Each structure stands twice: as C-alpha cells, then as structure tokens.
From TrEMBL:
CDD domains: HTH_XRE. Gene3D superfamilies: lambda repressor-like DNA-binding domains, Tetratricopeptide repeat domain. PROSITE patterns: HTH_CROC1 (PS50943). InterPro entries: Cro/C1-type_HTH (IPR001387), Lambda_DNA-bd_dom_sf (IPR010982), TPR-like_helical_dom_sf (IPR011990), TPR_rpt (IPR019734). This is XRE family transcriptional regulator. One of its GO terms (molecular function) is DNA binding. It comes from Paenisporosarcina antarctica. Residues 8-61 form the HTH cro/C1-type domain.
Amino acid sequence: MNNFGHVIKLERVRKNMKQITLAQGICTPSYLSKIENNSIVPSQEVIELLLKRLELSISQNKNLNDESYLKQIREIYFNAVMNKDRELAAIQLKEINTERYLFSDSTNYYTYQLMVLRLTLIVQDIRHDTSELIMALSELSGNFNEYQMFLFNSCVGSYYSFKLDFNSTLQAYEKAITYSQKVNMEKWEEADFHYQLGHCYITQQRWVISIEYIQKSLEFFKNGFFNTRVVECHLMLAVAQDNSYQYEKAYQNLLLAQKIASQLNLKEHFPIITQNLGNTASVRGHSDKAIQYFLESLESRKDNDEKLPTIYSLVKEYSKLKNSQQIIKWAKFGLSLINENQNPGFETFSHHFNVYLARETDQLLFEKTTINAYNFFREIKDYRHTEKYSLLLGNFYYKNSKYKNAAKYFALSNENMFKKNKISCWEDL
C-alpha cells in the first residue's frame, strides 16, 4: 500500500488530531508530514499502526482502478442529486463509507470526498457528521482544482442553508459561481446549481434573479423528465412570484406542481404544495382557506422538523385573526415538539413561538422574550426578522408610553429594513 498520505491527512484533520498526537510512538511528526504529502513510501507496519490509531480501515478492490470507482460514485451522486431518492442515497452512502476505497491519486480522492459530502447533505439523518468533513476539507482546499473548489463551496452553501444561516449560504454560493465560470460542468450539474442559487436568492428576497435561475433549471429538468425536480422548480417559482406580487402566476405554478405530484404519486411533495397553497391564500387575505391548507399540510407531515414551519404559519395566521386561544395552542404545540428533540437547528422556531406565546399570555415576559429574539436574529444577520421584532418592540413601547425605547426600536427597524433590502441611502428608497 503506497501513496495514501492524502487519506491519512484528511482523517487526521477530520478527527481534529495534531500530527504529533498521531505520530507518537509510531514515527516522528516530520516523517508523518512526508507520509501525508506522499513524498515517501512508509513500511507496512507504520501504515497499519497509523490506520489503527485513526480507527480507519481501508479496502482496495483490485478489479477497479481510481477512474472506474470514481465513475461508480459519480453515478450514485448523479441519481441522488437528480432524483432526490434520500432512502436509496442513505443506503448507498452507508456502503461507500463502509468500503473505504483507497485512491492512489489524491485528486480523485478529493473529488470523491466532495461528492460524499454532498450525499451526506442530501441524507438528512446523518447531517450531524457534515461539519467535521467540511472543516477537514477546508483545511485541504489549497490542493483543490477549480472544479473541486466549485463542489466544495456549493456544498458549504448547502450546509449553511440547512443551518438557516442564509448570509453565509449566499457567500459560499457566490464563491461557487466564480469557480463555475472557469470549468465545464455537465448540464445536469449546472441545472442543479442554478436551482440552488434560485433557492438562495429567495432567502435574500431577490425575487427577479431567483426566478431567472429557477426557470433555467426548470427547462432542463422538464426536457430530461426529472419530475421531482420539475415539481421543486414550480414550488420555488411560486414562492418568488408570490413575494413579487405575481399572484396568478404563483397560483398556476402551484397547480402545475400539484398536478404532476398527483399524477406520479410523488407523496413527499404533497405537504409542501399544500403549505405553499396556504401561503398564497394568506397573502391574498383568505385566512380561513390558508388555515385549511396549513392543517392539511401538517397532517401529511411525519418529521417534527418538517412540522415546525407549518405550525409557525398557523400561529401567524391566527395572529392576523387575533385568535388568542389558537395562537397559544399552536405555539405551545410547536415548543413541545422542540423540547422533545433538543435540536439546535430548531432555535429559530423556538424564538418565534416564545414571542407569540408571551404576547398573548404575559406582557412582562413578552418584552424580554422579544428582545432575546431580536438579539438572536441580529447575531445570525437575519435582517428580515430583526426588522420584524424591532418593529414589534417599537409598537409595544409606544403603546405603553415608553417613547424613548419606542424611538430606539423604530430606528432599529428602519436600519434593518435598509440592510434587508441592501439599501445604503434613504435617497435610494
């Protein structure tokens, strides 16, 4: 076994282990450094001791070479990305991680690891391991070619999107754009990236560019009969069009998504479609219809993390109707689901539910809770919600004749509105 230093280095970095720790009792740190740089061929005994310390087993199928194995992984990668079959992707990813194929060429190894990273992001149940792999690959990114830098930054963008850190998502994707312009990607990969960009720009409320990217993706997906992706595009277009006041276009895209999903029995899309139909009804002021859609969406959802956005929609809709009893009911239900799971990713919804609940039950607690929410969203640079909660605090203080505090938070609301819309001068309004 030779030329495997890239494997040792990645696993060492992934385990946050320093060279001196790994080398202790086996070889000198400088010798390990040469191994990791593939500048020497160590003895079989040294190899086995390093692998044992890393708790790493590696196999090498002698019937395959690097290119053949990488081709197999790329086929799995293609199917997972384009068909969105998470269950199949999870099975295949488990097999890949169990096999631990040894690449003799570090370039192929890095491409392989980046595709594994994307697969890990697709398979929701094992996302807890993603941050370690990202940090390890980041440390090694100086060795990446331009295509690998594109893959890496697009994966980092997906990771931050999952974490609801949309500003970091945008930064990573914009780096990926730079590298995508320097490489010849396959059309399917380009279409997938355009979809990711469209979703990202929706979170930034940049509706026009979002629609532009998603329409590019939609055309490719339709021509290739990637029906799951077609449904996703119609859903994303509806969101962007809804928010840019193109209500009829949004509604038509939702109907198209619903028709395709029904014809092909794409059940996993039913909750999202009804959720978005509820959003459209809400924007049009049809609260009763919106609530009906939200309840239908909630009923068809299984996982708690999928239920929380719909519960939040119900809380907001009942708040518009000033139905205190229902606000309290659904906010408490949302918080109970969060408490059951203790997932850090749910913190956003925890703040939302606590604000609405306190607003209906305890005015003293409401002030503290809303300030906490404001500070949380300010910390993650979510300007939409910092604007929302600073405005809510401004109105609260004004109503209670605390005019100095009211003025402070009204000013902060304006400041965050400027940031949200990327406006630097009042003349640009």
